[in-house]
Structures are given as C-alpha cells and as structure tokens.
Amino acid sequence: MSHALTLIPGDGIGPEVTTAVVRILDAVGVAIDWDRQDAGVIAFRKSGQTLPGELLDSIRRTRVALKGPCATPIGEGFTSVNVGLRKALDLFANLRPVSNLPGVPSRFTNVDLVIVRENTEDLYAGLEHVIVPGVVESLKIITEVASTRIAEFAFRHATREGRRSVTAIHKANIMKLSDGLFLDSVRAVSRKYPQIPYDEKIVDAACMHLVMRPEQFDVLVLPNLYGDIVSDLCAGLVGGLGVVPGANLGTDVAVFEAVHGSAPDIADQNVANPTALLLSAVMMLRHLGEVDAAVRVKAALDRVLSAGEVRTRDLGGSASTTEFTLALCRALD
Ligand code: NAI
Fold it and tell me: Are residues 185 and 198 in the same domain?
C-alpha cells in the first residue's frame, strides 16, 4: 500500500534536505505518494500567501506531512509560517527527542532526553501591538486547557516509551499567574501518573543544569517560548542543529520537521546536513506503522556516522549533502 503524504520543501536549505530524505525513503522501499506543497517565501512569491489554502487542505487530507524549514524575516513582514501552520491545524504538541548519535562529536556522550513543548500559545504566539510610539505590549496567554493537554501528552508519552521521569520547566517564581497556571496544570496531571517520578525546575537553573549534567533529565515539558529556546540549547549538547528531529502533533494530524531553520548562510551550497530531517522522517515512519523501514534507516544512519568517512561540514567533515545521501542509500541493508 502506498502512503499519501504531504511534502513541504520550504525555504533556504529546505529543498536540499527534503530532496535528500525523499531519496533515502525511496531507497528503503516505502511506497509514498508525495503531494508537494509550497509554503513560506517560495509560496509568497508565487501566490502572495505564505500558507496557501491548498497546503492546509493537503495536510488535512493526508494527515501526515514532512516539512522543510520556512524562513520568517525578523521584525516587519509576514508572520511565521510555522506558528500559522501549528495554529491552523491545532498541532498542540512539539516533540523533540535529543540524544547522542554514534560518531557525532559533542561535549557529552550520555544525553537521552525528550522535549515536549506546548505549541499553540504563550509569548510565542506573537500577539503584539504598539500602545503608543515607543511602547509595545506583547501578550503572554497561558490557558489551563492547553497546559493540561500538553502535560497529558508528556505523561502519556513517558508511559508509552518507558521513560524515567518528567520535569516541568517554568518561571513561576516571577510570572506567578501565567507560569503558575502552567505549573498547577502539570502538577494536577502528574498526580494521575504516580508511577512516573515528577519534578520541576525554573528555566534559568534548568539551562545551567542542562549544560552541566544533561544526563539527569529525561522528559521535559515546557511552555512554548522556553521550549523553543531550550530545544536549541539541547541540540548543542549532541552535535548541533543538524542532528535533532521533531514532530508537531495534533489530535489526528502530524507534521514532521527538524528543529533547525532555513539556514540561509549555507543555502544552495549542497552542504546542509539532512540528518535532522531524516530522523524526523524516521519518527514519521514509526507514526505510519512502517517500523521495519524506520529501524533500517536509523541503522544505516548510525553506520555512516560511526564510520565517520562521510560527514557533512557541520560535523567536521567535507561531504556534500548529495555525497552523504548516497552513502546512506548504500548503507541500507
Ligand atoms: P537556523 O537553524 O536556520 O541556523 C542556525 C545555524 O545552524 C546556522 O549557522 C546554520 O548554517 C546551521 N544549521 C542549521 N541547520 C543546519 C543543517 N541542517 N546542516 C548544517 N548546518 C545547519 O537558525 P536561524 O539562522 O536563526 O534561522 C533562519 C531562518 O529559519 C529564520 O527565518 C527562522 O525564522 C527560520 N526558522 C524556521 C524554523 C522552521 O521552519 N521550523 C525553525 C527555526 C528557524
């Protein structure tokens, strides 16, 4: 049976890394019928919209998308495609497993944690306005419904995957009402899962502990903005943005994408590392029930990275995106 899936190449290095991943998925033999859809800058140039209706219709139909990064200009200009997509499809949970990969140089060798980020509200929703010239208000909306929903997701994930613990990250000592509500909601859910050890850390202290002893963390559940920042910090613990995957999950729709952005500094040079998107695709294969293919792709990736002969520039090598992709296709058993 062929899977009908949506493919969003995106901006910057997006088309390069999605092409690489599609090629590897083809080589592993999973039958996929891709519905290619533009988003971001490319879509804006063609249709005047960064998030065209056909794209949303496609994902609502296929229920599963593989997405390259989409650029969001800083300051004035269009609002984030990623925020828009998550809102439009109610992709409330952002799941980012962060662990060491064989042969990938990093400061630590024992990182194995999962970031569960609330994806729909908080300061990250970008609700801002000018009150009077020189004064801007940015709204941090936190709701009990969204906080409870993400906490439930985190504890269910921890239970299903046999994880060790759940830690809520917050700043409720200062934002007593907003982060306080988040924390109260997570605490309430934690009481329903007495078998899973639960603790809490203030976000600044959590950052220090993460860069000193990351092995003490397992599942982290965070409001949207802290989740965004701490994700990149955690990517730095295991070799950088080129190697950390992610999934945006709703009740019945899933969009798989890497943690990294469109990397305009290396776009169109055939040097981007497709590993992060490939690992996102491995998550997608599991979601689709293609467990054997997921295991084979991950094993091939581990083989290529362990051998260390074909590495992209971000990992200290000199291989192009295409050379790395071919090495991976050859390493599939
Ligand atoms: P970025 O993640 O694009 O790049 C940060 C650094 O990491 C750059 O030096 C880049 O070359 C490197 N890098 C990232 N991915 C890499 C890969 N696969 N292989 C090798 N090196 C890699 O972050 P930046 O520069 O802050 O954002 C650029 C654009 O991406 C912005 O417009 C931002 O809004 C957007 N963005 C989109 C995301 C998404 O679509 N999910 C997520 C994060 C940012």
Answer: yes
Residues 212 and 133 in one domain: yes
Q: What gap in Å lies between CA 170 and CA 226, rounded to an integer?
A: 8
pLDDT digits (tens, 9 = 90+) for 129-167: 999 999 999 999 999 999 999 999 999 999 999 999 999
Distance (angstroms) between ligand 1 centre and the Cα of 160 equals: 31
Mean pLDDT over 181-204 rounds to 98
For position 125, which CATH number holds? 3.40.718.10
Q: For the chain, give the mean pLDDT.
A: 95
Which residue among the candidates 124, 179, 226, 314 is catalytic per the annotation?
124
Among residues 38, 122, 179, 228, the one annotated as catalytic is: 228
**pLDDT for 99-140, tens place per residue?**
999 999 899 999 999 999 999 999 998 899 999 999 999 999
Q: Where does a domain end: 173, 205, 237?
A: 237
Verify whether residue 67 is a known catalytic residue: no
- 228 in active site: yes
Answer yes or no: 176 catalytic: no
pLDDT of the residue at 75: 66
Which letter, b or e, does each residue of 253-292 get, where b requires 16 or more Cβ atoms within 10 Å of its Cβ? bbbbbbbbbbbeebbeebbbbbbbbbbbbbbbbeebebee
Residues 214 and 113 in one domain: yes
In angstroms, how far is CA 112 from the centroid of its own chain? 15
Q: For ligand 1, is residue 9 a contact (CB within 6 Å)?
A: no
Domain that holds residue 171: 107-237
Domain boundary residue among 219, 237, 255?
A: 237
Q: Domain total for the chain?
A: 2
